[in-house]
């Protein structure tokens, strides 16, 4: 089984990376936070890989941190959660926040993740609560939780060198101006307000 890939990043998209190793390009499914943290195309990248084998498919799921891979592998042990939904879950909430929500029995917070209903959230808590490592002190965010698209915009702005606080302020302005929804619209609007 493939457990780790190191090579040249040929392409990256919010849910996919193509990594060339030894002349072979591997198509790897990734989460949005992993996409945000990837280096520029053409750089060397190292990914922890979960190889998922079914009778009709072989799929690779990649993570920059081994802790994210471990959390993914715990998620797919929950009945009703397959690899695709696990990637969606990891894209919908920060890993530390998710661990805190599961250990804290916070079903309401878990149901805010796209694709997670009350029953699935309850199963996650029931099946994973005692299997996850103790998170740091659980702090309740003062701001309302942000979507994966908004987090991606913040990450993109941070990669351009903007401070997190300034990026969050610009994002709030962009949302107020009704530019919510797509990554492109939000990103352009937030970047425009930062450039003023």
Describe this structure in words.
This protein has 196 residues and is of the alpha+beta class. The chain is 45% helix and 20% strand. It is built from nine helices and five strands, in the order E-E-E-H-E-E-H-H-H-H-H-H-H-H. It has helices at residues 32-37, 66-75, 83-92, 95-103, 107-110, 118-128, 148-159, 164-176, 183-195; strands at 4-13, 16-21, 24-29, 44-54, 57-63. It has a five-stranded mixed β-barrel with strand order 1-2-3-5-4. Strand 4 (44-54) and strand 5 (57-63) form a beta hairpin. Helix 7 packs across helix 9 and helix 8 (164-176) packs across helix 9. It starts with a strand and ends with a helix.
Mean pLDDT: 83
Class by SSE composition: alpha+beta
* Portion in strands: 15-25%
**Regions with pLDDT < 50 over 5+ consecutive residues?**
135-143
Specify the overall morphology.
Answer: globular
Alpha plus pi helix count: 9
DSSP summary, beta strand count = 5
- Strand arrangement in the largest pleated sheet: 1-2-3-5-4
Radius of gyration: 18 Å
**Main sheet: strands, sense, barrel:** 5 strands, mixed, barrel
Order of helices and strands: EEEHEEHHHHHHHH
Separation, N- and C-terminal Cα atoms: 51 Å
Helix residue percentage: 40-55%
Characteristics:
196 residues, alpha+beta
Q: In summary, what is this structure?
A:
The protein has 196 residues and is an alpha+beta fold. The chain has helices at 32-37, 66-75, 83-92, 95-103, 107-110, 118-128, 148-159, 164-176, 183-195; strands at 4-13, 16-21, 24-29, 44-54, 57-63. Strand 2 (16-21) and strand 3 form a beta hairpin.
């Amino acid at each position: 089984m493939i457990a780790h890939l190191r090579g040249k990043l040929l392409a990256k998209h919010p849910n996919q990376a193509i990594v060339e190793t030894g002349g072979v390009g591997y198509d790897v499914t990734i989460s949005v936070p992993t996409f945000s943290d990837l280096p520029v195309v053409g750089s060397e990248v190292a990914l922890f890989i979960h190889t998922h084998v079914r009778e009709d498919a072989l799929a690779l799921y990649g993570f920059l941190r081994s802790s994210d891979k471990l959390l993914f592998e715990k998620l797919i042990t929950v009945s009703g959660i397959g690899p695709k939904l696990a990637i969606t879950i990891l894209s919908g909430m920060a890993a530390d926040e998710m661990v805190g929500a599961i250990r804290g029995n916070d079903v309401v917070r878990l149901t805010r993740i796209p694709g997670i209903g009350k029953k699935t959230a309850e199963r996650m808590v029931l099946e994973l609560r005692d299997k996850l490592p103790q998170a740091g002190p659980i702090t309740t965010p003062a701001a309302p939780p942000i979507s994966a698209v908004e987090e991606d915009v913040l990450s993109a702005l941070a990669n351009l060198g903007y401070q997190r606080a300034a990026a969050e302020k610009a994002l709030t302005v962009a949302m107020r101006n009704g530019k919510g929804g797509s990554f492109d619209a939000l990103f352009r609007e937030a970047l425009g307000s930062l450039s003023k």
